[in-house]
Automatic annotation (TrEMBL):
It comes from Amycolatopsis vancoresmycina DSM 44592. This is Dipeptide/oligopeptide ABC transporter periplasmic protein. One of its GO terms (cellular component) is periplasmic space. CDD domains: PBP2_Lpqw (cd08501). GO terms for biological process: peptide transport. InterPro entries: Peptide/Ni-bd (IPR030678), SBP_5 (IPR039424), SBP_5_dom (IPR000914).
Amino acid sequence: MSLVAGASLLLSACSGGDSGSGNTDQNGSSTDVKAMAVGKAETGDLFKLADTKPYDGTVTIGIDDGYSGYNNQTPDTNSSYNNYVLAAVLSGTLKLDGNNKVLLNNDIFESWDITQKDPQQVTYKIKPNIKWSDGQPYDCKDMYLAWLSQSGFAKGPDGKNPFNSASTTGYSLIKQATCKDALTFVTDYSEPYLDYKGLFNAPAIMPAHILESKTGIADITKLAPTGDPAQIKAAGDFWTNEWKGFKADIMPASGPYKLTAFDANQKAVTLEKNPMWAGGKGGPSKIVVKAMEDTKAMATALQNGEIDVAASTQPDATAAQTMKGLAAQGVVYGSAPQLTYEHLDLNFKRMFADKDLRKAFIESINRKEITDKLLKEVQADAEPLNSVVFFQGEEGYTDLYSSKAGLGADAAAKTLTDAGWAKGADGIFAKGGQRASFKITHNQNARRSQTVEIIISQAKAAGIEVKDETDANFLKGGRVSTGDYDVALFGWSAQPFKAESRSIYICPDKGGEQNYQALCDPKIDDAYNAAVKATDEQVKLQKYQEADKAIADDYATLPLFQTPSMWAFKGIDRVYMQSYDGVLWNAGEWEQKK
């Protein structure tokens, strides 16, 4: 999945969700997992880890793909799977519980208040005596670095921004960031931004003291956009390139756990308790997170006692059946919709510059067949998703795709014929020497292979040839982020702030850093920009709906379904798979089940 944090995350890539939507669904779960969705010490709009009984021992967790970087804010690391690990390692202003409720991380922060409305000013207060795991202060400098690295304003000697950030959404509206003192950070906005609580989340806040010591920069807060270009370049190069993989000396923790080992071959990362953590002292003494790309193998590993928690964002019917059948072993199975959607992106730089071909291809795809065959065992009421901005049940959700997708082979063939395409002797349409033949590319994922297999059959009936291309590194090897595909099959995942999808769909040269398909439509840009700047909630909603409709009318992308998570666990009192942060969002309060 891909992530959005200020940006959207690739859920081997995903996006969207609305604040406090409470969109949890027990459909398919073996017990009332909804009761596990709230933190044990959560009160009102504040989140703190509960101080639970000591838990000596190791918990082993299986997830779908591996950890690859400590800095999850660059295009080549911006992944849900990094975020699932870093949720327990790094701390920011925001915590989301299992209901996607937006909470202040009160273990670290006192407040995040709008201190001036016009122009907008937000002031953050950090609690005193908060430290990184190496004993250095967690303070205003760390927040300043988060802004500097993602604002898009920094310029090196060549006039270019050396911070390669996955997205600048929200941060670019902060015209000035100031450390009033070590614990007070003030952000002054050039325009209103109602989704400000989505900024400065855990992965965004990196240790400024490490960057300073490794680059020789005395004070990162002096590198405003008018600072020394040579120092800005040094800072940007370090931020972009050095926080990949695992290097213990430059990767301290600000959360309840710290990284202590990483086996790239086994795709396993080890977490141990952070001795400087100021919050609750509970949780397992050690956690090992392993990548298990085969969801069926993950379920078998749980059955065999090789792992204690199976946490998959890639639903699989056979794996779900296996995990549901382990109740006699004390295994609890859960399933719930995520703030993630599976979709197809059509590349405008290649043959899908032709709108008629885009239209015909989408018309040929019956998404209900996909959800019925591949998701019903995981979530019995799964159905196609008909928006890329809103989820079913959210205010603003409108069905924009039922009238466009699944119209059948005859409708798709007519669209191509009317546009001057002609069917060849091989049964495939062609025009101007170009056959309607292309690849759908995805990462190594059995369900995605099955999805493409279904689409191949549907498209063939319409005279369109589709080929399956599996690339294990598609989402993290630079191919998806450089637009190296005909059609990309993946997911977007985001925090519950609609502004975060802006970077996916506006023109690439206008702030669409995550717009890898080269879609560019002024109607989309205008609607998103108006929505992000809106000060009235109804105007904001209307503009997001306009953006949603414009994307659909361009036949640019086809949402398939809102992706349900599936997880199972044993030996722990309760585990809930949070839509954006995975199962580790409250690992520091897990207790051993007697």
